[in-house]
């Protein structure tokens, strides 16, 4: 459009200055085209546009259709309309046929969900233009929304099996003077509570005898995910920020840039597998009503890990704010994920990404040991970038009696189990390996 307008001005000036009738004709022709094009923009479209998602949460790989509905409430016919819907950095175009009064038109396009992430959709806007394409007019008609693509998770068996089986309120081998699981009797020493004296045994032996108990522990699980890029082969994988819609019907699509700089790389595959492991462990614990803490690395500088610039801030779509202390403190290296419901946990996991500035596995473990008390079992989830020495050092920070399990994600390798003292290190190549690896390590 600007080129035609400039050509009209230049051709008219040169034509009248030099007396060239051809240039004058070109100028008037271009001006006439501009006038005709502007007439197509007179008035408002008046149509109603809505953007609908059957579900705002899907699992990576699931079909996610989006519906654009256009209705003409005016008495006049609506012609020449196109509806554009931004999908991440891509664009879905719906060409609307001529609509009479009261008629409507619906079109469906499929949002790609091959990778975990948050995909911004909308706002849907009506585009009006002339047939030649000189001018266009846009007006936003439907509010923006977003689609949460959850990581893939494994349908784990109940936590009555595997590691957590030993934490179902069962007695441990640690002895205590106050609990509910009776173990044996011993002689009274000054300071023992009188209520624990076993009077029948005292009467038989003539010596005051008190009860001794085995300590029982409730199930309190912590799952810690390293977001440090160096723990995943040195890359910096993250969630999908760009997406191009897949057409269905008559919808046409302009694709955006590639989704993620490390899509398909080893570091990215390790990180995505690690996120799925955390989601599987956390979701199972939530379903079983266990006490659960899911934590991830926070930025060393006191800021959050990488955010999604394409996801708009919308009413009712609040993000989980990391609980952090002052910059430089251990608590500043810890980010808590929501564990109220399974969906809330997977929502947070859909948004996270690795960063070079995030705390390493060792820093995360030390911060978690300081911040979260009463934990009975800890899962440390990382990639192949974390060395055995680093994993062992991370596990040492937890108090004695806490069972620490490290899950190393190495795509396409055979699952394995190593014992480093009291530390169990599981290596999995596929998400399906997790169930069997946990059961083997519990034996």
TrEMBL record:
**Membrane-traversing stretches:** 25-47
| Keyword flag Lipid biosynthesis | no
User: Keyword Membrane: yes or no?
Assistant: yes
Stretches assigned to the DUF58 domain? 185-233
Domain of life of the native organism: Bacteria
Alphabetically list the UniProt keywords.
Answer: Membrane, Transmembrane, Transmembrane helix
Question: What PANTHER family is this protein classified in?
Answer: SLR1927 PROTEIN, SLR1927 PROTEIN-RELATED
Q: What is this protein called?
A: DUF58 domain-containing protein
């Amino acid at each position: 459009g600007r080129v035609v307008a400039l050509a009209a001005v230049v051709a008219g000036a040169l034509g009248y200055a030099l007396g060239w009738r051809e240039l004058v004709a070109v100028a008037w022709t271009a001006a006439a085209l501009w006038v005709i094009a502007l007439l197509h923009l007179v008035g408002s479209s008046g149509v109603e546009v809505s953007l609908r998602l059957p579900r705002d949460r899907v699992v990576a790989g699931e079909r996610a259709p989006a519906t654009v509905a256009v209705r003409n409430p005016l008495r006049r016919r609506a012609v020449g309309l196109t509806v554009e819907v931004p999908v991440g950095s891509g664009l879905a175009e719906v060409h609307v046929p001529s609509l009479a009064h009261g008629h409507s038109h619906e079109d469906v396009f499929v949002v790609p969900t091959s990778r975990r992430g948050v995909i911004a959709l909308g706002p849907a806007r009506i585009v009006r233009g002339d047939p030649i394409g000189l001018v266009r007019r846009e007006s936003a008609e439907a509010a923006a929304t977003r689609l949460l693509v959850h990581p893939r998770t494994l349908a784990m068996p109940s936590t009555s099996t595997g590691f957590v089986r030993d934490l179902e309120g069962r007695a441990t081998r640690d002895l205590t003077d106050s609990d509910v699981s009776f173990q044996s009797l011993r002689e009274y020493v000054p300071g023992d509570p009188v209520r624990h004296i076993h009077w029948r045994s005292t009467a038989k032996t003539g010596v005051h005898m008190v009860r001794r108990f085995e300590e029982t522990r409730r199930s309190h699980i912590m799952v810690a995910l390293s977001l440090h890029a160096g723990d995943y082969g040195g890359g910096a994988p993250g969630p999908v920020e760009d997406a191009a819609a897949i057409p269905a019907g008559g919808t046409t699509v302009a694709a955006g840039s590639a989704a993620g700089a490390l899509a398909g790389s080893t570091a990215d595959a390790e990180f995505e597998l690690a996120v799925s492991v955390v989601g599987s462990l956390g979701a199972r614990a939530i379903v079983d009503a266990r006490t659960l803490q899911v934590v991830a690395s926070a930025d060393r500088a006191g800021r959050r890990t990488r955010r999604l610039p394409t996801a708009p801030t919308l009413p009712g779509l609040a993000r989980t704010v990391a609980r952090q202390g002052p910059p430089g403190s251990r608590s500043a290296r810890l980010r808590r994920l929501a564990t109220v419901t399974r969906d809330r946990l997977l929502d947070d996991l859909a948004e996270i990404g690795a960063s070079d500035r995030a705390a390493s596995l060792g820093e995360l473990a030390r911060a978690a040991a300081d911040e979260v008390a009463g934990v009975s079992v800890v899962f440390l989830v990382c990639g192949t970038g974390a060395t055995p020495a680093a994993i062992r050092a991370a596990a040492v920070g937890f108090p004695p009696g806490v069972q620490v399990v490290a899950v190393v994600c190495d795509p396409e390798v055979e699952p394995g189990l190593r014992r480093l003292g009291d530390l169990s290190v599981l290596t999995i190549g596929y998400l399906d390996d997790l169930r069997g690896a946990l059961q083997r390590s519990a034996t």
